[in-house]
TrEMBL record:
Name of this protein: 3-dehydroquinate synthase
Gene name of the encoded protein: aroB
Subcellular location: Cytoplasm
Cofactor(s) of this protein: NAD(+); Co(2+); Zn(2+)
Keywords (A to Z) from UniProt: Amino-acid biosynthesis, Aromatic amino acid biosynthesis, Cobalt, Cytoplasm, Lyase, Metal-binding, NAD, Nucleotide-binding, Zinc
An annotated GO BP: amino acid biosynthetic process
EC numbers: 4.2.3.4
UniProt-recorded Gene Ontology molecular function terms: 3-dehydroquinate synthase activity; metal ion binding; nucleotide binding
Gene Ontology cellular component terms for the protein in this record: cytoplasm
Family stated for the protein in its record: Belongs to the sugar phosphate cyclases superfamily. Dehydroquinate synthase family.
Amino acid sequence: VRLEVQSAQGAYPVVVGAGVRYALPEILADLRLDDRRIAVITDEIVRETPFFAGLLAALQGVGRGLLTLQFPAGDAHKSLATAAELYHGLVRGGFRRGDVILAVGGGVVGDLAGFVAATYMRGVPYVQVPTTLLAHDSAIGGKVGVNLEEGKNLVGAFYPPRAVLFDTEALTTLDARQWRNGMAEVIKHAIIADPDLFLRLETQPMPQLADPSGFVDIAARAMRVKVDVVTQDERESGLRQVLNVGHTVGHAVEQFSGYALGHGEAVSIGLVVEAAIAANRGLLSWADAQRIASALERHGLPTRPPYADVDAVLKLVEVDKKHTHDGWVFALPAAIGRVEIVRVKPDEVRVAYEQVREGHR
Ligand code: NAD
Ligand code: ZN
């Protein structure tokens, strides 16, 4: 499956399939990037996967030499310190202005390698090769960045990749929890704009991990939703906010858990609470709110906030919303397949959070 994102810096392809890593030389040639040095940036866990070995093998003889740089896995390493090490590695490897970076890994590698690409010598081309299910989302849209000690993603840029290559064969080595975390974003994309995909996710048996080709269609449809949204609003001036559905409450719960909850797990809880906010104000039917919760549950995701301290959670929402007093801007589901941007009063969040927590939804 081949999609295309329109961006101010030009359009870029998003290629999805089982085994598409073997098409990488061809894609680099199409982009006229096959006569450059190639720096593959990854983390130490992905480095050891059979997928990565296959990718390197496919790249033998392509370009003017291959350089592999890796860093320890985990969000804690998505930092300026790691970026600095990567810059040094690139300089030492003789990497120059026109050369190309391949970001091979989950969202951490994508954000960090993309940030390095955006800033090294004022910008070099890069290609995203996402290897987690969650990264079907993060690899598209050109948001790159690193964390600071004070908070996540505080430094970054909009810097679109030259291509995104999502090979579902990479997913076979994910563990069940990484899988669930990614499914939350797949379900989110269905809620935003693809009711047929949602119906599939809520009723049909899911393809097994061992058979990644069965997942191509689902991944491609979720990615199409993101492609369409970021094509229409690259810089998050309006429409792109719909992608935040589930994320306002989700981020607060994720932070409150001290990141014990995975991102997708927190987004799942956020989606259910935000669906309840929408249902309470008559924007969404309770039947659809129930469908959202059931679909998430079906994929093994949590649907109730485990924390009773709603005030602490509200405070985190408030910080996130930068203390706006005439109501917080939320992306709320209005139907399966439609999200609206609305202002929500803190009290509405409190009521919905408590309803969901107590199981009245
Ligand atoms: P991750 O990159 O840390 O990957 C999770 C774990 O899986 C890591 O330990 C990694 O080494 C391992 N892994 C990766 N691929 C694997 C594979 N094929 N087999 C086995 N293990 C594998 O995290 P993630 O969940 O992919 O992404 C989270 C990050 O994405 C966060 O930093 C978040 O801020 C960022 N993000 C960015 C955007 C964006 O628009 N840029 C959107 C959402 C999330
Ligand atoms: Zn997310």
